[in-house]
């Protein structure tokens, strides 16, 4: 399949058309942003790690019965994926309090939850990706009630699978953000990426942060943290 024109450039990835209908190429960049693009930087080698990690995890999730957009890895930074129309919702699952949850509700970071939580943000850069509830999302036609039910079911299943897998790597899955898309037949699949950019991953023993919070919070050692989680994943996948 031949790489054709660029369809879209996001903060961390570019998307290209191919000469095959309904097949796209995603290309992962080393660019990193935070706070809706206010903070900009480069995490050297991030694109290679996020491409590989996302592909390995999506293949694992497929085996567990969750449909994804993944088709085939092309090289270090590029992957064939199924063309989807993205449901404009960021789906966030949390197992332990951290980040915006801790801030909003005054729950200290690191407090484990009685049960995992789900929340949605409306993917809209101009509005700063505001929190939205499922009734609002249905009301303004971001997704149907049936799609929301499917998304919730898949998202909690993704959590169960990823939590158990990361635990086997000595890594605690604190929370993560995923996105879903619609294939041309309307069915819902997991899309976008699963990487240290989009998950909070803490060393299970030391609690050390091994994800993008090191960049967001200027903790240093960003590249080393990405390399460390990738190494653990490759040893256990
Ligand atoms: P939060 O605590 O800042 O709301 O983040 C929750 C999770 O979502 C965390 O794992 C980081 C991830 N995330 C993204 O992937 N993209 C974003 O733009 C934001 C704000 C968070």
Describe the secondary-structure layout.
Blueprint: E1 3-9, E2 13-18, E3 23-28, E4 31-34, E5 39-42, H1 46-63, E6 70-73, E7 78-82, E8 85-86, E9 89-96, H2 99-105, E10 112-122, E11 131-132, H3 134-139, H4 145-168, E12 171-182, E13 188-191, E14 199-203, H5 213-216, H6 222-236
Antiparallel strand pairs: 1-2, 2-3, 3-7, 4-5, 6-7, 8-12, 9-10, 9-12, 10-11, 12-13, 12-14
The structure holds thymidine-5'-phosphate.
Thymidine-5'-phosphate binds next to helix 2, strand 12 and strand 14.
What this model shows, in words?
With 237 residues, the chain is α+β, with helices and mostly antiparallel strands. The protein has 2 domains: 3-82, Phosphorylase Kinase, domain 1, CATH 3.30.200.20; 85-236, 2-Layer Sandwich (D-amino Acid Aminotransferase, Chain A, domain 1). It is built from 6 helices and 14 strands. The protein has helices at residues 46-63, 99-105, 134-139, 145-168, 213-216, 222-236, and strands at 3-9, 13-18, 23-28, 31-34, 39-42, 70-73, 78-82, 85-86, 89-96, 112-122, 131-132, 171-182, 188-191, 199-203. Strands 8, 9, 10, 11, 12, 13 and 14 form a 7-stranded antiparallel beta sheet that branches. The two termini are 28 Å apart. The model has no long low-confidence stretch (mean pLDDT 98).
